Amino acid sequence: MKFRFVHNNINVYDLKRSMDFYKEALGLTETRRIEKEDGSFIIVYLGDGQTSHLLELTWLRDMDRPYNLGDNEIHLAFQADDFEAAHEKHREMGCICFENPSMGIYFIEDPDGYWLEIIPEKR
């Protein structure tokens, strides 16, 4: 029996704001979507155009407040082919939330408070 990664899901409060953020910050674009006929939810899959792994954004109509992530320590990691340019872009966007220069990484925060790790290409 074998398994392979297909996607990661996060719930988002403002779908358009999240999609705009992921496009600007990481270049992710919509690959497909599922919309419930009654309008109760929308699922949007975002891809990087390089791998088959997808980020699934789930929007729930009845969610009436931003998500409380509590002590949620989960994060996704993205490898940047131009780490310095990525860092500058994210600095300009004001979304860098933590830097660890000794490890050579930093994190950005999306509109819902999820942290995304940015790592350089392996040298």
TrEMBL record:
Where the record annotates domain VOC, the positions are 4-123
Instruction: Show the GO cellular component annotation of the record.
Output: cytoplasm
Q: Which organism is it from?
A: Lientehia hominis
Superkingdom as given in the UniProt entry: Bacteria
Please name the GO terms of the biological process aspect recorded for this protein, alphabetically: methylglyoxal catabolic process to D-lactate via S-lactoyl-glutathione
Q: Which PROSITE patterns match?
A: VOC
Q: What is this protein called?
A: Aldoketomutase
Task: List the Pfam families hit by this protein, alphabetically.
Answer: Glyoxalase (PF00903)
A GO MF label: lactoylglutathione lyase activity
